[in-house]
Amino acid sequence: MHGDKYIAKTLFGLEEILAREIESLGGTDVQPLNRAVSFNGDQTTLYRINYCSRLALRVIKPFLQFRAHNETVFYKRMRRYNWDQLFGLEQTFKINSVVHSSQFSHSRYMALKAKDAILDVFRLKKNGQRPNIDLEDPDMIIDVHCSGLDFTISLDSTGESLHRRGYRKKNRPAPLNEVLAAGMVMMSGWNSSIPLLDPMCGSGTILLEALMIAKAIPPRRNRLRYAFMNWNNFDRELWSQVRRSAILDQKEERVELAGFEIDARRAKETQAVIREMGFQGSVKVRSVNFFDEDPPFTTGMIISNPPYGKRMAQDAIESFYRELGDTLKNKYMGWSAWILSGNKTAIKSLGLKTSQRRMLYNGAIECKYHFYELYAGSRKTIGSIT
Length: 386
Prior knowledge:
The chain is an alpha/beta fold. The chain has two domains: about 150 residues, VC0802-like (2-Layer Sandwich), CATH 3.30.2130.30; about 160 residues, Rossmann fold, CATH 3.40.50.150. Helix content is about 30%, strand content about 25%. Strands 2-3-1-4-7-6-5 form a seven-stranded mixed β-sheet, with helices on one face. Helix 8 links the parallel strand 9 and strand 10. It is elongated, with a radius of gyration of 23 Å.
């Protein structure tokens, strides 16, 4: 065991593959948790995971643990810490609080108590002076986590969530989080030798994440700011080395990626994003109806997140899934397909037998990620969960 202890947060169902990813990025003593992975690492590992991880949402560093039976004890324990050694008067901060406890029921109230304790420490030690709160763009982010009577106080190394890659247009939300899309690709067993199709690609998130995985492109290659840059021990030269090393590790892989999108306006927007990223030679998105179009490759893998029917009548969504299943059976023999769906009833209308399934969450929606082998003659599998 070496280095400091960190916790990388992720989405439910991605813990095991995030653990393997963290090991590949230099983490040791790696332990999957619930929606998180704990690990040990040095500064290089911390910087590398923030820059290169496709599955982490943020990385926090626990530095204070204690038990408290009420708010008064919590406040006193927070007052004991030398907060002025962690950051200075000129720096701003905010508190993030998550509470799972019958004794402490309000996350926001605990955040306020933590803030009061920190400010009181500064006032006492700095002749009444105190740092400012900044809820939008703070220098320091302090994470308060309560489970029962146990508190863990951590420093957020990340800042803005790591799922934000920078390629998605602002104010244009997509139905699939980038971390979830990357997880779906990595779970599938897909690699660059297998042609990949998303038949209802929307904003193209699955295809773009697959391309960056195949070419080992850092998911946040253009991001300039992270919370750890405001820490006392930030090493600018080491950070530059980590970035340079990751960029040098990129591969010139040839990939075949295609997307269909029935909405012409959305397809045009996705094509524009692909051009801006310089990937137009690798990802082809066309405005066509999957049900009417022929396969773009002779064989390959499908990974898709079709509609769940939240705004459709039940008979309409079941008919949609029935047509989806018929299209796969009639046109895509010899392929394999991974389908994410949050509609447990409609997915049965595919009429296909799933050989694997995993539970995932798309936002607050509980989903199942199904694997289908579309046999052509002999039983042949392309891809599997690893």
